[in-house]
Write a structure and sequence with these properties.
The protein is built from 11 helices and 20 strands. It is globular, with a radius of gyration of 20 Å. By secondary structure, it is of the alpha+beta class. This is Glutathionylspermidine synthase family protein. It comes from Campylobacter molothri.
Length: 389
């Protein structure tokens, strides 16, 4: 694995563009001053893998719905109706997600770890900052697998055209508005949400931003300051809404039933988001080259990773070999359902591990890396890349 040292983005520049979480609690930089060197054929392989996997996820989700397997995925019962409604109607368009991969460099096969389909972050870093690093270092910004901004803009237009071709967006668009929301006090989620609002606005939508506690919900729709919004984008996990805000889950289901608003990302992305889907993928596509063996009980004769079906930032993940726990992270998800996924080592360099993240917006559209320990957590760093033979 090759790394290229670069001049880092200065903190005053990052502050000026609104990127405030550039320094970790220990005083170290969150954005790495190196780039991962990726060959063109490796970048293409990441792109192809994400496209192939998305089709597989659709087949797996259909299996979950047809056979009522929601409980296996740990999906709260109070979201099942919303999931089914959103799945059956094309207007509930999946805006974007991020596949996390092991491998893909130096001849190592690409292996899917999980799909962050509902509320993926690292968007600002991947779409904007790694591009800015190339620009600042006088490198050709085209030498990067990074069409995230453009693909998101096109996919916003597909909310209206519901088709690959977005050229007729202006013909069909009739002033429908998108309200973008995150939770007050989380700067990372706020800037991610505001970036999406900016892109939607550039695509041609009327947009606004509001913290979720300022939004008004009723059977008649979603409102802010008395204005009705036809779309609501929330960077709030569906499972958190179901468990912590049960009344809101019921109300959003009613809003969907009354066709008063469309919620992004759609409720069905919770099927993709649950790591329980990995078990179903492996049932449907056993020994597929992109998949790791995954079950709902410990694997025999293999080192495996125990993961909560819904978890964030590496919490409650453990790596187990035989009877020995090689590495374990604590966290709040101890009462979750768990899956057991075959262990595979991430790309590594000098005892640091690199996980590839590929954003998906109608197609694979951009690559970025996170580096850290054997289990990546909220202390991991963001690392950009450059396509270099």
């Amino acid at each position: 694995m090759r790394l290229l040292k670069v001049d880092k983005l200065q903190k005053d520049y990052l502050e000026n563009i609104g990127f405030s979480w550039h320094t970790d609690e220990d005083g170290s930089d969150y954005i790495s001053d190196t780039l991962v060197c990726v060959k063109e054929n490796e970048a293409n392989a990441y792109y192809e893998a994400s496209n192939e996997l998305y089709d597989m996820f659709i087949a797996a989700a259909q299996n979950v719905i047809d056979n009522d397997r929601f409980d296996e995925l740990g999906i709260p019962f109070n979201l099942v109706e919303a999931i089914k409604m959103s799945w059956e109607n094309d207007v509930h368009w999946h805006l974007y997600g991020r596949f996390d991969f092991a491998g893909g460099l130096d001849g190592k096969p690409i292996k899917l770890l999980e799909f962050n389909a509902d509320t993926p972050t690292a968007l600002f870093e991947s779409a904007i900052l790694q591009w800015a690093i190339l620009k600042q270092n006088n490198m050709d910004e085209n030498h990067q697998f990074n069409n995230i901004y453009e693909c998101l803009m096109e996919n916003f237009k597909r909310l209206i055209t519901l088709d690959d071709d977005t050229s007729l967006f202006q013909n069909y668009y009739q002033g429908w508005k998108i309200l973008f929301s995150s939770i007050a006090g989380n700067k990372e989620e706020e800037i991610t949400t505001k970036l999406l609002a900016y892109i939607a606005n550039e695509a041609g939508f009327e947009t606004n931003f509001s913290y979720v506690d300022e939004v008004e919900f009723s059977d008649e729709g979603i409102f802010k300051d008395g204005i009705n919004y036809e779309y609501w984008f929330k960077l709030i996990p569906w499972e958190d809404i179901a468990i912590e805000e049960g009344d809101l889950a019921m109300l959003l289901t009613q809003i969907m039933r009354n066709q008063k608003a469309i919620i992004l990302n759609p409720a069905y992305t919770l099927i993709f988001q649950s790591k329980g889907i990995m078990k179903i993928l492996y049932e449907l596509y056993p020994n597929h080259p992109l998949l790791l063996e995954t079950k709902d009980q410990p694997l025999t004769g293999k080192t495996y990773v125990k993961k909560p079906v819904f978890g964030r930032e590496g919490a409650n993940i453990s790596i187990v070999k035989g009877e020995q726990i090689l590495k374990e992270n604590e966290g709040p998800y101890v009462n979750n359902k768990f899956i057991y996924q075959e262990y595979v080592e991430l790309n590594s360099h000098e005892n640091e591990f690199y996980q590839a993240g590929v954003f998906f917006a109608y197609e694979g559209c951009g690559l970025g890396f996170r580096k850290g320990g054997m289990i990546l957590d909220n202390s991991s760093k963001f690392v950009g890349h450059i396509i270099k033979e």
